[in-house]
Design a protein that fits this description.
778 residues, mainly alpha, 3-stranded antiparallel β-sheet, two-stranded parallel ribbon, 37 helices, elongated
Length: 778
């Protein structure tokens, strides 16, 4: 594409400039945010009074020297022309902003589109022209430095706002890719940065600048300062100290950890793209947006720093215009809300629900920018998969909050998650006496309970929140299963059938609608198996570690993973050297699994507990599972599982002649047909995909026969999923009329048993009919 020229677009450019300048001039005449503009004027006059060298010792300021030095001439000019400081301040910064936009447009490939986006950016206009802030200057300086690879401009950007230091990895990588010396950027930008302190510090500039930086980052230690981000998903967290603990981690630490993890994902995605320079704007934008979204102490304006970068990124990936619009809208609403809040006795112009919605838009968009390179292809080409995922979501999320009280083992899992959320140390300890009617759940690893904590952190301590994680994991596991089956069989029909069968399988639905750990374990395991099939063994190890950290029964899945590895690296071709290599690889992957598992106990250690107590906790967990001799009215055996003969009764409510029951019950049509398919397709075991699925089914079923503890039907969950895959491979071999008839049968059976899964009130006739036909269900 040829570079658009100014001469070929004179009319359009003129119109854009006229509109942009007119809006900015109008905004300049409006009242600025009086806290900020009043502070700037006071600093400006104090600088004249005390002089640059005496300013910081005489006046409190959390700004760096450079912006304060630029304020002084403004007050002098305002006095000379007899105009309000705020108006002159805005006009000067608008002028600088427009000059920088011109410089940026001349340094980019697509000058006209980027110029229009920057000139008409509501974020830039709102910050400088209406609010009366300086944020647009460092943001545009940073953007110009990335375009021109100028260390001087970058040093000035950081000297304006330390947050621009986040640009370092992106501009440095782009600089090196352009053939520049690795030391050029850090050396010259540092010289510029520290030299800006000379007027206010003399030769003590190094210590002085570091002191100023820490002073700025240390102010306002709250989870969020009117910023609509991750920390305001639940608006009650506004202006809460960021020392507040979540799972024994301070909010400040947790925010930095989330930012660090998602930034690594972002940079790794760029690495996979071989650090292509054209993606640098998107990577920089994403890092700034992630910083605003997850770290604490964010002001309402700090989302601005990523938006100009994202505007330029749209020239290379046009679909980014959607997140650009969403985040711009979020920013403008946030800015207006905070402006109104300041000027109306700290009241918001919209309700807390609206604040939460805006925060969700920002948070989800940030995560999508970090994790997804381009729109998923199946959104266009896989309409059947999308429909299946929508169906599975509806079946799992509909009326998820019913009942509003604990059901079955939620008295352990959900209750303990609530105690985690409240940072009660005793929730981790097997010797702690629980309140009557509930119990502390320490017999399983903690990861699933963290999911429940996250739900309650975002949506409050209610039944929807503590079940949300299971429902999300349920839908995600269906997507993972589709990708796994498609990767192995290369047949989309089998993959779609497997996904559909699991989406209407009752056991999977029921366990997706209760706050227990089974769905977490299953989801992470399926994705681990998919990563292994795609030869991404480090990721597979991490995911398996998460599965194991949800429930120990994930250990049964190690052998299928080993089978995949041996299939990809066939032993018959090994010699001594390759045998040692593969043994070392296996040990490395096991160490990754173990490390991930141990890391999930970080809140336990920070609670605080000792590593000796950690070891004793595991000894107690092992003793519990190997010595449990209790009985239960709804316990069952693996033989009963495979025939769906003994469901588990989760909940009951009587209302006159109507009864609401919730059972964990499979879809008998699917489970029984699955057994037929399993037997008929035994000759296919020489086929690797069929061998893997059959082996997975067997390994998640047969070891339970030897279990010394009581067992329940929900232990059959992983097996039922792999049975659905086996069934789908058989169904596709049938004539279409039989295939559709059997699918219709499974759907009808789901409708018939749905009151058992959802607790729909039904007359006694309904329940008596089922219990007469299947007495073991009662």
């Amino acid at each position: 594409m040829s570079k658009p020229t100014w001469s070929s677009n004179k009319i359009l450019i003129a119109l854009v400039w006229i509109v942009a300048i007119a809006i900015r001039l109008y905004g300049a005449t409006r009242p600025a945010q009086f806290y900020d503009i009043g502070t700037f004027e006071a600093w400006s006059r104090s600088l004249w009074l005390h002089g640059p060298l005496g300013f910081f010792s005489a006046v409190w300021s959390d700004y760096l020297p450079l912006p304060i030095l630029t304020f002084a001439p403004i007050s002098l000019l305002a006095d000379l022309v007899h105009l309000p400081f705020g108006l002159v301040f805005k006009l000067i910064h608008i002028f600088i902003e427009l000059i920088l936009i011109i410089a940026i447009s001349r340094s980019t490939i697509y000058a006209l589109p980027s110029t229009i986006l920057l000139l008409l950016s509501p974020a830039l206009i709102g910050d400088s022209s209406f609010w009366g802030q300086v944020d647009t200057i460092p943001a545009l300086l940073g953007l110009l430095s990335l375009s021109t690879l100028s260390p001087v401009i970058f040093g000035l950007a950081v000297a304006y706002k330390p947050i621009m230091i986040l640009l370092v990895p992106v501009i440095w990588i782009k600089d090196i890719k352009a053939g520049k010396a690795w030391w050029r950027l850090p050396l010259f930008s540092s010289l510029i940065f520290f030299s800006t302190a000379l007027p206010t510090s003399g030769f003590d500039f190094f210590r002085h600048m570091l002191t100023r930086v820490f002073a700025q980052t240390g102010t306002y230690p709250y989870l969020t300062i009117n910023a609509f981000n991750f920390w305001s998903l639940h608006p009650s967290l506004l202006w809460i100290p960021d020392s507040t603990s979540v799972l024994s981690l301070s909010g400040h630490t947790l925010g930095l950890a989330l930012f660090f993890v998602f930034s690594l994902i972002t940079l790794n995605r760029w690495r996979i793209q071989k650090f292509a320079p054209k993606y640098a704007y998107r990577i920089a934008a994403t890092i700034f947006i992630l910083f605003f979204t997850f770290t604490t102490r964010m002001h309402e304006r700090h989302l601005l720093f990523g938006l100009p970068f994202l505007a330029l990124a749209t020239q290379y990936q046009t679909f980014l215009f959607i997140p650009y619009l969403l985040l711009t809208m979020s920013y403008v609403l946030n800015l207006y809300g905070a402006y109104y809040w300041v000027n109306h006795a700290q009241t918001w112009p919209f309700g807390l629900g609206m604040i939460s919605l805006i925060s969700w838009v920002t948070t989800v968009t940030a995560i999508v920018l970090s994790t997804i390179s381009s729109p998923p292809r199946f959104l266009k080409s896989q309409k059947y998969l999308v429909l299946i995922l929508l169906l599975s979501g509806c079946l799992r999320f509909i009326n998820l909050s019913y009942p509003s009280t604990y059901i079955f083992d939620e008295v352990y899992h959900a209750f303990t998650a609530r105690e985690y959320l409240a940072n009660h140390k005793g929730a981790w300890e097997w010797w702690t006496t629980p309140p009557e009617g509930v119990a502390y759940e320490w017999t399983h690893p903690p990861l699933a309970k963290y999911g429940m904590v996250a739900g309650m952190f975002l949506f409050g301590e209610n039944s929807f929140a503590w079940r949300l994680g299971s429902a999300v994991m349920g839908v995600a596991s269906i997507l993972g299963l589709y990708l796994l089956v498609l990767s192995l069989t290369k047949q989309e029909s089998i993959a779609l059938l497997a996904a559909f069968l699991v989406s209407i399988e009752g056991l999977h639905i029921a366990q997706s609608r209760i706050a227990m750990n089974d769905m977490y374990m299953l989801n992470f395991y399926i994705w681990s198996l998919y990563a292994a099939v795609k030869s991404r063994w480090k990721l597979a190890s991490v995911l398996f570690g998460l599965s194991l950290a949800s429930k120990w029964s994930a250990l049964y899945g190690l052998l299928p993973l080993a089978l995949v590895y041996l299939h990809q690296n066939q032993p018959k071709y090994w010699n001594l050297k390759s045998g040692v290599y593969h043994l070392l690889c296996a040990m490395r992957y096991l160490l990754v699994i173990f490390a991930v598992y141990v890391l999930t106990f970080t809140p336990f250690i920070l609670a605080p507990h000792t590593w000796a107590e950690w070891w004793e906790l595991h000894r107690q967990m092992w003793f519990y599972h190997t010595h449990l001799v209790a009985t239960h009215a709804y316990e069952s055996t693996p033989i009963q599982w495979i025939f769906a003969a003994r469901p588990v009764w989760y909940y009951v409510k009587y209302a006159g002649d109507y009864i609401s029951n919730i059972y964990v019950q499979g879809n008998p049509a699917i489970l029984w047909l699955g057994l037929v398919a399993l037997i008929l397709q035994l000759p296919k075991l020489k086929n690797f995909p069929h061998l893997l699925f059959t082996m997975s089914y067997a390994l998640f079923t047969l070891p339970w026969i030897l279990s010394p503890r009581i067992m329940f039907f929900y232990h059959y969950l992983p097996s039922s999923v792999f049975l659905c895959v086996i069934l789908s491979t058989w169904l596709v071999s049938l004539p279409k009329k039989y295939l559709f008839s059997l699918l219709l049968l499974t759907s009808i059976v789901l409708l018939l048993i749905s009151p058992m899964l959802y607790g729909f009130p039904m007359p006694n006739t309904y329940w008596n009919t089922f219990f007469t036909l299947f007495p073991s269900w009662k």
